[in-house]
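STRUCTURE:
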């Protein structure tokens, strides 16, 4: 389990380092100690400003793909990015998918610079997105991501590989704005900003869309 640290003392949500936590599954789901923390390596990646590993996809090719999103240098421009664990062990070496000086995307072992990351979005020209989720259906890979910033839409796009490029975006779901009035709230808060729309394909039983979100209200 990856824990991404965040400094939000000034409301800027600055990504810090990433810790690697190991859990043990015992007994059956619902048991008190079913998911038991064994250890945490807080020094696993002490500097991960782009929060690689915010979402994960373990592929049949033997790699674990580590997704995130970051600003591309434009006003309200945000692009999905990807790294991967070399093999199926999160605690092993990672490599990062970036655009090189010749304009080609390639995997590199060195953590990318800010300039590299800005040019290395894996959904080129498709919009401004945050918190990308990837899953596979048939021979295609699908990315679902929330429009940035705090958008009321989750879009879906498709690629031939888990590293993209993801294209042909379509609106998957759109929420009303505000989503709801909080009855009895004397400050008049509204559930206006959708924060961290998370897709859960593993919880879908009959093809339905399962999404969770973190509440972010405004006065």
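SEQUENCE:
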């Amino acid at each position: 389990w990856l824990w991404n640290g965040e400094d939000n003392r000034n409301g800027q949500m600055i990504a810090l380092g990433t810790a690697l936590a190991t859990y043990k599954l015992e007994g059956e789901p619902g048991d008190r100690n079913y998911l038991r923390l064994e250890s945490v390596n807080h020094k696993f990646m002490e500097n991960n400003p782009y929060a690689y590993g915010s979402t994960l996809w373990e592929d049949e090719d033997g790699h674990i793909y580590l997704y995130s999103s970051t600003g591309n240098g434009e006003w309200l421009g945000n692009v999905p990015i990807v790294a991967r664990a070399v093999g199926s062990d999160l605690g092993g070496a990672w490599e990062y998918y970036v655009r090189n000086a010749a304009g080609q995307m390639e995997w590199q072992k060195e953590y990318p610079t800010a300039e590299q990351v800005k040019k290395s979005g894996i959904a080129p020209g498709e919009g401004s997105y945050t918190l990308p989720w990837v899953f596979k259906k048939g021979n295609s890979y699908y990315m679902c991501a929330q429009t940035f910033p705090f958008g009321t839409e989750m879009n879906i796009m498709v690629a031939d590989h888990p590293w993209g490029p993801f294209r042909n975006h379509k609106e998957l779901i759109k929420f009303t704005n505000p989503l709801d009035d909080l009855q009895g709230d004397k400050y008049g808060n509204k559930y206006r900003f959708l924060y961290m729309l998370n897709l859960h394909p593993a919880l879908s039983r009959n093809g339905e869309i399962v999404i969770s979100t973190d509440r972010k209200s405004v006065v």
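REMARK: Residues 114-118 form the longest helix (5 residues).
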